[in-house]
Structures are given as structure tokens and as C-alpha cells.
Amino acid sequence: MNVTVVSNEQEFEDALKVRRIVFINEQQVPEEEEIDQYENECTHVIMYDTEKQPIATGRLRDVDGIGKMERICVLDSHRGLGLGKNIMDRLEVIAKEKGYHKLKLNAQTHAEGFYKKLGYQTISDVFLDAGIPHVTMVKEV
After folding, report:
1. Which residue, 12, 22, 83, 97, has fewest beta-carbon neighbours within 10 Å?
2. What is the pLDDT of residues 85-139, one digit of tens each?
3. Rounded distance, CA 32 to CA 78, Å?
4. Residue 29 vs residues 83, 85, 124: alpha-carbon distances, Å
5. Are 126 and 133 spatial neighbours (Cβ–Cβ below 8 Å)?
């Protein structure tokens, strides 16, 4: 299963479908917060299963010259298989290709350990985003 850069409307809709399932349905994030004004300026990635169903996604956005990893998610049915790492690895390659030297993300606290294993360091106290506890993390690349 490959992680590919979203390059057409169908792939973009598939990425949004995964995000709606994970963030809006599972985590009760309001749709107006999940689907935001930055969608068109981001580089989105998507992963499909062997039956061509979307199963994981994420996006990269420029924030003041720093590559910000956002909306990283994997469908519940496919968690624990290393797909989140695949998404992050692909986004990091894209970030390096774009010339970023520093990456940033706001991690849900339950996922902080996952990002630490990928080399990210926590630089903030816990804060709420969409009612969910998060921390800010960074990584030099």
C-alpha cells in the first residue's frame, strides 16, 4: 500500500472521507473546524487498501516557513499496522523536497508517544483543540 500525493478531486474527496470518519464521526470534531480554509494551500497525501478504499491520510502546510503536519489519521479498522508511520514518512519526504528544515505538529496527547518515536519533541503544555487535549511537537530535518 503506497502513500501518494493527492493529485485530483477524487483523491481529495477520499482524503476528506477518511478525515470525516476519524475526526468528525469518531472524535466529534465539528465539520467547520475539521474542513478549514487551508485545504487548498496544503499538500495532501492518501493511502488506499488493496481494494482501492481510502484508509489513511494527512496533509502538510506552510506556517511561517515551517512545515506543519496536520490531519494525520488512519481508519480504526487499519490502526496498529504502521500506516500512520507510512503517512508521516511520506509527508516528511515531501517537506524535505520543499526545503523545510523544521517540522511542527499539534498531537493529540494519546498520540504523543507515537510522534516521539518518529523523532518529534514536545515543546508545549497540554492545550485543548476542538475540545481534545493536544501538545505541540517539533522535529529538525
Report:
1. 97
2. 999 999 999 999 999 999 999 999 999 999 999 999 999 999 999 999 999 999 9
3. 26
4. 22, 23, 22
5. yes
pLDDT for 10-67, tens place per residue? Answer: 999 999 999 999 999 999 999 999 999 999 999 999 999 999 999 999 999 999 999 9
User: H-type helices in the chain, by residue range?
Assistant: 9-19, 31-34, 83-97, 112-117
**pTM higher than 0.90 for the full model?**
yes
Q: Are 66 and 104 contacting, i.e. CB atoms less than 8 angstroms apart? A: yes
Rounded to the nearest 5 degrees, what angle is found at the Cα of 91, between the Cα atoms of 135 and 123? 20
| Distance (Å, whole) CA 48 – CA 26 | 20
The CB density around residue 110, as the number of other CB atoms within 10 Å, is 9
Cα(119)–Cα(115) distance, integer angstroms: 7
Q: Residue 68: beta bridge partners?
A: 61, 104
